[in-house]
Amino acid sequence: MQDAVKLVCAQCGQTNRVPSARLSAGPKCGVCGAPLAGAKVMELDARAHDKATRGDELPLIVDYWAPWCGPCRMMAPEFAKAAQAVGPGVRFAKINTEDFPAVSQGLAIRGIPLLILWHRGREVARLSGARPASDIAAFVRQNVPQLAG
Ligand code: ZN
What we know:
Layout: E1 4-8, E2 15-19, E3 42-44, H1 46-55, E4 60-65, H2 70-86, E5 91-96, H3 101-106, E6 114-119, E7 122-128, H4 133-143
Parallel strand pairs: 3-5, 4-5
Antiparallel strand pairs: 1-2, 4-6, 6-7
Helix pairs in contact: 2-4
This protein binds zinc ion.
């Protein structure tokens, strides 16, 4: 693993360099103090989404959802559980596609809920439909080699 990784703050959009050894110690943004990694799902706006999906050096899984989507709301607690299960090596985030429709247009998203796993500016894989926490965690582990085994 690298000595430090670049992570975009979901709250203010600042890029932080976090020592890899500190990832599990609840690192916080140097500008606004928001948590940068950990087992909690971060809420992204369009700007933070674009910066994080392009620049993050840790795998990032984003839940594309909307308040009108029943299956999305059902999946939210499962996604949060998966974040706990996977741990700080992967960041979990969500974005409200009703508030930021340009994001789903840009990614050609036709149906939600949809999960996209990102790493170093690249889309790694997609998982569509409402899924239980165990499926989400398995999807992440399958697609992030350093978590395998
Ligand atoms: Zn911040």
